[in-house]
């Protein structure tokens, strides 16, 4: 009797436990993307697909708490900022190793940042480190290193800045500041991007070009219990629609490109839809630039008029509701976003009267640039119709992204550009990132991204002052300063802020974790924090 | 024959240099600035300028072309602007997939094309002829529709074949079938008109008068004479498929050269675009050369003329 009871319970227990055991084994997940991964070199990679992979392959002095914009030491154990804001001293965490087995030391940090700045690397991120002493000498070819980075011993890195930079700690958390071992870079002879070595949460085990990348958990990662999955395989070349079908069949865990617009409602309304769709806010604003150097947009009243003319709700509908109408430059998640700012309401009558005041009441002809990938041309058409309603005849030029950027960066070329598909997502969660390149005088140059060619010297001065407040105690005051800068900029109406787009990722039912680790404000998919249920 | 080959090879070489020159000029005439694309959104004007300098894009066009050409003659296709990987490595990595799909696709389209083209020609004007011609018209003019239908029925609904990917025989079936069905339309039309021509010839009438079976007339006398244009078309297809079949590769996640080219075009990655164009041009030239070389063996009339 006892024996049969024992037998019975063990069988029952075995049956009960079996599915759990099977799940526990399968902690390798499959992620798909349409485009091939361009590079995993942290000094070069700069698109939203490789960004999150690079984040997890390498470590940096500073990093963010998963799912948040909260900055803290990572590879650094502690740091000190001198009262003048010009010296930053970091103590490295002890015992951190590269996946090659060697200890991470201070000179690796120095080498890695110098490499990111060195023109020979051809990386896009050099400018972020502009405040470090010796930056001009290195970019100008007069030096081979940065005199502003000192390594008094293997566990200490000291940064000397030429000007206070309140964003400097953020800069040390962006991918370009990732720490790499010099010998591995040299061994890869120019192609480190396909042979990455770091000290992050994962290592690259295999890369079959054009097909897949296999990432494996770093068992020695310095934060215990991180990462939570054993590994992930990235399959590339996967059409988003096919990826979604495979996800529904259970072959794929994360469809990185999200859900094609045509399928969105169908999935959303399906039985498991709510658990499959991650729909998260990101640090994004989509806008129309109004070129202040092209007639008649050199007239403030005309810029204000077109600001009143755009029906943003309709554009949100074109995006299947995956966006919210924007009133100001900063997105709602960004510190400094002014939730009380009224902006320019949709008001056709007011727009017409402003045009009349500007002396172009009978309308005018202009050109609106946009990229040629869906849904951007459709959004451009909506804007075109809104403009037609107040008498402005806008010709749409839908071109490849590179050509639109080129037109925007040429003085006097593009009267209006719809930024969709190109700009702007913040590199780090700090308001200054929405000013310098796209609204400041420094960006209003040949090949720049300030396509409004808006240059307000007074605002520039205030921006510099705000970025000099590097004392953490002053951070609230600094955010207020920035808030005012952006509302004052909007008084000049160099842009029509149109939408704050959200990102959509589709995940399988077995994937766990809050939505904000699938659409992490600083890295999109946070491979360190997602887990299998 | 040897002299003909030598002359054709010399021609092929000149054609390739010409293709390189034209592509190079066209790409550099683009208003999009590759350095700007690499530099991304946050780069300062100084960073863009230094990237342009490092890539040699600030030199005169002729100097740039000469640099590229001298590299090419040494077998060096350069490095990708965005990836920094050798272009040759990227192309070689995708060659097996491209060649597999090319071969499988051509087999399918030739078999389908000859079969249905012949049937249509023999049953000219009849129900089957009209059906075949209509189907080929759909295939030729609505490729996306065909792709979607195949994928949906055989991969999603029936689940017989994997939806996408590469690696096993099962993976190649749907992409090859898609390519084959799309291409078969052209082949069927070509075979049909060639067969109709041949079937009206005197010698076919003579054969029929001799009392030969219609099967023997079709397979022994008519088809071999109608097949020559097919050989030439295969030569063209080899080149085209080598350049990548973007839609089919994209839908089935096939890691071929087309995907590489498509992505490179988006990124203004000129060395990759050049590399793929030249590979494709080389394949077209080689394909035509092979077609010309084997034509006399198929049709002795060419040898004597």
UniProtKB/TrEMBL annotation, chain A:
<dbReference type="InterPro" id="IPR039424">
    <property type="entry name" value="SBP_5"/>
</dbReference>
<comment type="function">
    <text>Part of the ABC transporter complex GsiABCD involved in glutathione import. Binds glutathione.</text>
</comment>
<dbReference type="GO" id="GO:1904680">
    <property type="term" value="F:peptide transmembrane transporter activity"/>
</dbReference>
<dbReference type="GO" id="GO:0042938">
    <property type="term" value="P:dipeptide transport"/>
</dbReference>
<comment type="similarity">
    <text>Belongs to the bacterial solute-binding protein 5 family.</text>
</comment>
<keyword id="KW-0574">Periplasm</keyword>
<keyword id="KW-0732">Signal</keyword>
<feature type="domain" description="Solute-binding protein family 5">
    <location>
        <begin position="71"/>
        <end position="443"/>
    </location>
</feature>
<dbReference type="InterPro" id="IPR023765">
    <property type="entry name" value="SBP_5_CS"/>
</dbReference>
<dbReference type="GO" id="GO:0030288">
    <property type="term" value="C:outer membrane-bounded periplasmic space"/>
</dbReference>
<dbReference type="Pfam" id="PF00496">
    <property type="entry name" value="SBP_bac_5"/>
</dbReference>
<dbReference type="GO" id="GO:0043190">
    <property type="term" value="C:ATP-binding cassette (ABC) transporter complex"/>
</dbReference>
<dbReference type="InterPro" id="IPR000914">
    <property type="entry name" value="SBP_5_dom"/>
</dbReference>
<protein>
    <recommendedName>
        <fullName>Glutathione-binding protein GsiB</fullName>
    </recommendedName>
</protein>
<feature type="signal peptide">
    <location>
        <begin position="1"/>
        <end position="24"/>
    </location>
</feature>
<dbReference type="InterPro" id="IPR030678">
    <property type="entry name" value="Peptide/Ni-bd"/>
</dbReference>
<keyword id="KW-0813">Transport</keyword>
From TrEMBL, chain B:
<dbReference type="GO" id="GO:0071916">
    <property type="term" value="F:dipeptide transmembrane transporter activity"/>
</dbReference>
<feature type="transmembrane region" description="Helical">
    <location>
        <begin position="12"/>
        <end position="30"/>
    </location>
</feature>
<keyword id="KW-0812">Transmembrane</keyword>
<feature type="transmembrane region" description="Helical">
    <location>
        <begin position="166"/>
        <end position="188"/>
    </location>
</feature>
<keyword id="KW-0813">Transport</keyword>
<feature type="transmembrane region" description="Helical">
    <location>
        <begin position="99"/>
        <end position="122"/>
    </location>
</feature>
<dbReference type="Pfam" id="PF00528">
    <property type="entry name" value="BPD_transp_1"/>
</dbReference>
<feature type="transmembrane region" description="Helical">
    <location>
        <begin position="134"/>
        <end position="160"/>
    </location>
</feature>
<dbReference type="GO" id="GO:0005886">
    <property type="term" value="C:plasma membrane"/>
</dbReference>
<comment type="similarity">
    <text>Belongs to the binding-protein-dependent transport system permease family.</text>
</comment>
<feature type="domain" description="ABC transmembrane type-1">
    <location>
        <begin position="95"/>
        <end position="295"/>
    </location>
</feature>
<dbReference type="InterPro" id="IPR045621">
    <property type="entry name" value="BPD_transp_1_N"/>
</dbReference>
<keyword id="KW-1133">Transmembrane helix</keyword>
<dbReference type="InterPro" id="IPR035906">
    <property type="entry name" value="MetI-like_sf"/>
</dbReference>
<feature type="transmembrane region" description="Helical">
    <location>
        <begin position="226"/>
        <end position="252"/>
    </location>
</feature>
<protein>
    <submittedName>
        <fullName>Peptide/nickel transport system permease protein</fullName>
    </submittedName>
</protein>
<dbReference type="Pfam" id="PF19300">
    <property type="entry name" value="BPD_transp_1_N"/>
</dbReference>
<feature type="transmembrane region" description="Helical">
    <location>
        <begin position="272"/>
        <end position="298"/>
    </location>
</feature>
<dbReference type="InterPro" id="IPR000515">
    <property type="entry name" value="MetI-like"/>
</dbReference>
<keyword id="KW-0472">Membrane</keyword>
<keyword id="KW-1003">Cell membrane</keyword>
């Amino acid at each position: 009797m006892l024996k049969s009871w024992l037998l019975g319970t063990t069988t029952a227990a075995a049956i009960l436990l079996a599915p759990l055991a099977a799940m526990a084994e399968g902690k390798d997940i499959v992620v798909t993307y349409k485009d091939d991964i361009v590079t995993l070199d942290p000094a070069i990679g700069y698109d939203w697909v490789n960004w999150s992979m690079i984040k997890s392959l390498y470590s940096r002095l500073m990093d963010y708490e998963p799912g948040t914009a909260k900055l803290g030491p990572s590879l650094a154990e502690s740091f000190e900022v001198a009262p003048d804001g010009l010296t930053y001293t970091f103590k490295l965490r002890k015992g951190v190793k590269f996946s090659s087995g060697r200890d991470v030391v201070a000179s690796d940090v120095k080498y890695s940042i110098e490499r990111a700045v060195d023109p020979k690397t051809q990386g896009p991120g050099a400018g972020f480190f502009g405040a470090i002493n010796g930056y001009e000498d290195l970019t100008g070819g007069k030096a081979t290193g940065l005199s502003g980075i000192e390594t008094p011993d293997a566990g200490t890195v000291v940064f000397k800045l030429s000007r206070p930079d309140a964003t400097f700690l953020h800069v040390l958390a962006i991918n370009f500041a990732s720490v790499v071992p010099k010998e591995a870079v040299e061994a890869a002879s120019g192609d480190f991007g396909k042979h990455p070595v770091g000290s992050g949460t994962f290592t690259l085990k295999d890369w079959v070009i054009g097909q897949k990348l296999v990432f494996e958990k770093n068992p020695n990662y310095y934060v215990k219990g991180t990462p939570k999955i054993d590994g992930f395989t990235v399959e590339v070349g996967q059409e988003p629609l096919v990826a979604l079908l495979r996800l529904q069949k259970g072959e794929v865990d994360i469809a990185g490109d999200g859900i094609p617009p045509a399928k969105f409602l169908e999935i959303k309304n399906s039985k498991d839809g709510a658990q499959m769709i991650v729909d998260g806010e990101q640090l994004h604003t989509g806008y129309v630039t109004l070129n202040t150097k092209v007639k008649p947009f050199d007239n403030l009243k005309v810029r204000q008029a077109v600001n009143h003319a755009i029906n943003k709700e309709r554009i949100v509908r074109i995006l299947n509701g995956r966006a919210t109408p924007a009133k100001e430059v900063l997105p709602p998640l960004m510190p400094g976003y002014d939730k009380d700012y009224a902006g320019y309401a949709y008001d056709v009558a007011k727009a017409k009267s402003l045009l009349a005041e500007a002396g172009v009441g009978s309308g005018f002809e202009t050109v609106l640039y946009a990229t040629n990938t869906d849904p951007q041309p459709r959004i451009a058409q909506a804007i075109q119709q809104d403009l037609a309603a107040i008498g402005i005849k806008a010709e749409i030029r839908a071109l490849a992204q590179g050509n639109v950027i080129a037109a925007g960066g040429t003085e006097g070329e593009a009267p209006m550009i719809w930024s969709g598909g190109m700009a702007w997502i913040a590199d780090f969660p700090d308001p200054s990132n929405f000013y310098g390149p796209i609204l400041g005088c420094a960006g209003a140059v040949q090949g720049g991204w300030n396509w409004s060619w808006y240059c307000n010297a007074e605002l520039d001065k205030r921006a510099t002052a705000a970025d000099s407040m590097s004392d953490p105690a002053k951070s609230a005051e600094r955010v207020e300063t920035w808030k005012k800068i952006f509302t004052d900029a909007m008084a000049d109406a160099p842009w029509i802020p149109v939408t704050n787009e959200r990102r959509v990722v589709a995940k399988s039912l077995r994937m766990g974790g809050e939505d904000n680790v699938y659409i992490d404000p600083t890295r999109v998919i946070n491979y360190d924090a997602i887990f299998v249920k | 024959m040897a002299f003909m080959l030598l002359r054709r090879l010399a021609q092929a070489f000149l054609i390739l240099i010409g293709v390189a020159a034209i592509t190079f000029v066209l790409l550099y005439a683009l208003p999009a600035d590759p350095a700007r694309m690499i530099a991304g959104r946050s780069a300062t004007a100084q960073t863009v300028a230094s990237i342009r300098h490092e890539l040699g894009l600030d030199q005169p066009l002729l100097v740039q072309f000469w640099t590229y050409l001298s590299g090419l003659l040494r077998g060096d296709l350069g490095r990708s602007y965005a990836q920094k990987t050798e272009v040759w490595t990227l192309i070689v990595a995708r060659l097996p997939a491209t060649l597999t799909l090319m071969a499988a696709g051509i087999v399918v389209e030739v078999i389908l094309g000859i079969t249905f083209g012949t049937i249509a020609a023999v049953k000219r004007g009849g129900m089957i002829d009209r059906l075949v011609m209509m189907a080929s018209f759909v295939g030729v003019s609505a490729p996306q529709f065909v792709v979607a239908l195949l994928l949906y029925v055989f991969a999603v609904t029936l689940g017989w074949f994997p939806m996408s990917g590469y690696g096993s025989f099962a993976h190649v079936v749907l992409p090859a079938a898609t390519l084959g069905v799309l291409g078969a339309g052209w082949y069927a039309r070509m075979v049909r008109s060639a067969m109709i021509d041949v079937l009206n010839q005197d010698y076919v009438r003579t054969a029929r008068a001799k009392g030969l079976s219609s099967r023997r007339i079709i397979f022994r006398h008519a088809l071999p004479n109608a097949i020559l244009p097919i050989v030439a078309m295969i030569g063209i297809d080899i080149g085209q498929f080598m350049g990548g079949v973007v839609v089919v590769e994209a839908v089935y996640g096939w890691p071929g050269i087309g995907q590489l080219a498509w992505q490179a075009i988006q990124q203004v990655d000129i060395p990759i675009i050049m590399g793929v164009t030249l590979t494709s041009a080389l394949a077209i030239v080689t394909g035509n050369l092979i077609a010309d070389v084997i034509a006399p063996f198929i049709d002795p009339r060419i040898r004597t003329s």
